[in-house]
Amino acid sequence: MTSGAPYGLDSIETIDGSSLVVRPIQPSDSEALDAAFHKLSAESRYRRFLHPVNHLARRDLEYLTCVDHVAHEALIALDPGGEIVAVARFIREDDRSERAEVAITVADSWQRRGVGTQILQRLATRAGESGVEVFTAICLEDNKEMFDLFRELGATTTHRSAGTADIEVEVALPADSPAHVLGAALKAAAADEAQAPPLLTEP
Hints:
Layout: E1 10-13, E2 19-24, H1 30-38, H2 42-49, H3 58-65, E3 72-78, E4 84-92, E5 99-106, H4 115-129, E6 134-140, H5 144-152, E7 156-161, E8 164-170
Parallel strand pairs: 5-6
Antiparallel strand pairs: 1-2, 2-3, 3-4, 4-5, 6-8, 7-8
């Protein structure tokens, strides 16, 4: 597949007035992504990976940063110092699939400031542009924020096992909708505790 051309910079403003730059992830972001991972709390890592993870292997960092922006997309939010404070990504089930697994993580110090909502809106817009119609995720059943968020969006639970639930939700809304691709319904993500799994390669 031909790689999608990275598009221009975007920006978001948090609920407390801070400004962040949003752009597609690049291979050169590997070191910064690793640094961001090590700043996550143990709880945030667990919610992200669904099991304890202490480090990212080099191949995982390569997988997470070397994306084609079509079948695998990832957006990062950068603080004024250039550090990664949030990552949102989707990965299609196959190159032409209309379904994609979604993941989002926000640095602990930037949670509850509206970062997750806004970066996920931008990711969903990218998904719609790429032909993705359904987001899927695996959610810990005790992760109430994420579970309630997807349920509010009309998600269906397709499978439950060992404390997790496989869920899916349609994301393609009309372009002129006030809730364009998850927009208004993502208000619950402002708490930024709603974190889906990370879409990593197997260790």
